[in-house]
Amino acid sequence: MTASDYRWKDGFPKIGIRPTIDGRRRGVRESLEEQTMNLAKAVAKLLTSELRYPNGDPVECVIADTCIGGVAEAAAAAKKFKQSEVGLTITVTPCWCYGTETMDTDASMPKAVWGFNGTGRPGAVYLAAVLSAHAQKGIPAFGIYGEDVQDEGDDHIPDDVQEKLLRFARSGLAVAMMRDKAYLSMGSVSMGIAGSIVDDSFFQEYLGMRNEYIDMSEFTRRIDEEIYDPEEYKLALAWVKENCTEGPDNNPEHLQTSRERKDQEWETVVKMTLIARDLMIGNPRLAELGFGEEANGHHAIASGFQGQRQWTDHFPNGDFMETMMNSSFDWNGLRAPFTVATENDSLNGVGMLFGNLLTNTAQIFADVRTYWSPASVERVAGYKLEGRAANGILHLINSGSAALDGTGEQKIDGKPALKPFWEITEEEVQATLGASQWRPASVEYFRGGGFSTDYLTRGGMPMTMTRLNLVKGLGPVLQIAEGYSVDLPQDVHDTLDKRTDPTWPTTWFAPILTGSGAFTSVYDVMDHWGANHGAISYGHIGADLITLASMLRIPISMHNVPKERIFRPRAWGMFGTEQSEGADFRACENFGPLYK
Question: Which of 324, 356, 492, 586 shows the greatest Cβ crowding within 10 Å of its Cβ?
């Protein structure tokens, strides 16, 4: 078993489909059996055809053995789901059913109910009744009800129902995939950054995750004792020499290192990458080499590397390691990206994890560095911002740990994009590598040397920037900003970029403005952002993030998602319908963390 296969050895959670039915016999139930089961099969077909697991396999659904007309059949379905490792459930019905007798009562799993909109039987009446029961029992569920009436016996899924089913399933799978995994802290707190003060209560109660910790000296131990696959190391180093272009050294001449020193640093950062991966997921090859304990890994679905400064004042920085781990390919070819947070900012790591699980694409980690107003750009660069950038832009840039996918060299319909690894071509990999340089690290920041990624993100991509924050007395809150990457003329980019460290990757980002609140202006977005970092995902996934956050009971403190795309549990409406943001906070506080 390869290290890549080893990563998925535990499999993935499945989606449980619960066809519920009117339990009255002597003609009532009998007349509904086929239609009800066909609805369940139609939902399963939709989900398996549209959704994939992180390894590229189609999502699996498990349908209850029989329609559920009462508590005995509900219990039998629950037993089957537990044995089948179901992580979320969808209840479907075209008719009236006995609400509390047929409902899913597992409070730890996300759940939705689709009540068929038809006049022949009162599916909508059951939907209302069972959602009322969910609210009364404190087990929030998502209600799905099509806008248009369907004919009796129609097992077609309307477009609006499909959208909600897929949104719920994507988010529910993300919840289920995080559960019982670990966040691995490689080091501790970096430069006093609050996000790298790892809050184990948050991970345990809100995400259902463990926390694992190592000291960064574990890297030196594994390097010195050669606790890595030596054959893979040779392969990796050869690949790096052939594919990773080393850019110019911006350090003052008297601080530039020799070729011999740079070659040694390359060897170190490649070893660090192998070691970080093995620390996260384990590697059966290590057991063959006599390192049985190390072969197990830490069962980590996400991690963070402290780096600064205790490591980087003496050893090469972690930029190459973080970049390659976060990317969709390495020397072994295309593979699912890992989630590794710079400076062990665990909260930004969670934002990256959310984006990755919802999209199966690589994520960009960045400082939310600078707001450039139109007036400032014109003053400094003599250029008038236009198009999506006309109201100003945010300079997203960090020390080189953003996934290489962030170049935008992948294409969808000829346009820049980030794609799941199974859709990426070898030509796109080479284009991505060709658009990236590895610049000798700034000694001002990294006394131990190393290499920082340098690229410019292509404009025109829909993107969503997120940030998870912890607030004393309140708990976690999530911020969401949908927008677009934008292009600037090369000379304008150079002028602005050189005012900071030009050896780092840049994404110029223009958030979508709504004219109110934190999205009145681009300045307001910057002024309301909760921390120094942001996680950037391809696509406008704000609605999925809102659904996911509601499952975890994390309120949204700031977003620019149109209200018609927002999908939360039906009980949220019981906390008010006019001020949905306030209702979200009240509902999350009332129901509390999912795993508490």
Answer: 324
Model confidence pLDDT, tens digit, residues 162-220: 999 999 999 999 999 999 999 999 999 999 999 999 999 999 999 999 999 999 999 99
CATH topology of domain 6-178: Rossmann fold (3.40.50)
Span 530-544, average pLDDT: 98
Residue with tokens 């080189």: 400
Q: Report the SS3 class of residue 596.
A: coil
367 is catalytic: yes
Which CATH number describes the domain made up of 182-591? Answer: 3.20.14.10
Classify each residue of 351-361 as buried b or exposed e, where b means 16 or more C-beta atoms within 10 Å of its C-beta: bbbbbbbbbbb
Q: Any idea what the Cα angle at residue 30 is, between residues 26 and 32, rounded to 5°? A: 130
Give Cα separations from 302 to 175, 307, 356 (angstroms): 14, 16, 10
Per DSSP, the chain holds a count of helices (H) and strands (E) of: 20, 22
Sequence ranges of the domains in the chain: 6-178, 182-591
Cβ pair 339, 524 in contact under 8 A: no
Choose the catalytic residue: 155, 367, 482, 544.
367
Q: Is 226 one of the catalytic residues?
A: no
Q: In terms of Cα–Cα distance, which of 371, 303, 313, 309 is closest to 342? A: 303
DSSP letter, residue 564: G
3-state secondary structure 465-494: EEEEEEECCCEEEEEEEEEEECCCCHHHHH
What are the phi and psi torsion angles at 157 (to 5°)?
Answer: -100, 110
- Give the residue ranges of the annotated binding site for Mn(2+): 343, 367, 533
Specify whether the CB–CB gap between 340 and 325 falls below 8 A.
yes
Q: Quick check: 507 and 488 in contact, CB under 8 A?
A: no
Task: Tell me the average pLDDT of the chain.
Answer: 96
pLDDT tops 90 at residue 488 = yes
- What's the rounded Cα separation, in Å, for the pair 3 and 122? 52
pTM for the full model?
0.97
Rounded-to-integer distance, Cα 508 and Cα 105, Å: 46
Pair type for strands 506-511 and 475-485? antiparallel
Q: How do residues 15-65 score in pLDDT, each as one tens digit?
A: 999 999 999 998 899 998 999 999 999 999 999 999 999 999 999 999 999
Sign for the CA dihedral angle at 102, 103, 107, 112 comes to positive
Note whether 6-178 and 182-591 share their fold. Answer: no
Q: What is the DSSP string of 92-154?
A: EESS---HHHHS---TTS-EEEEE--BSSS-HHHHHHHHHHHHHHTT---EEE--SS-B-TT-
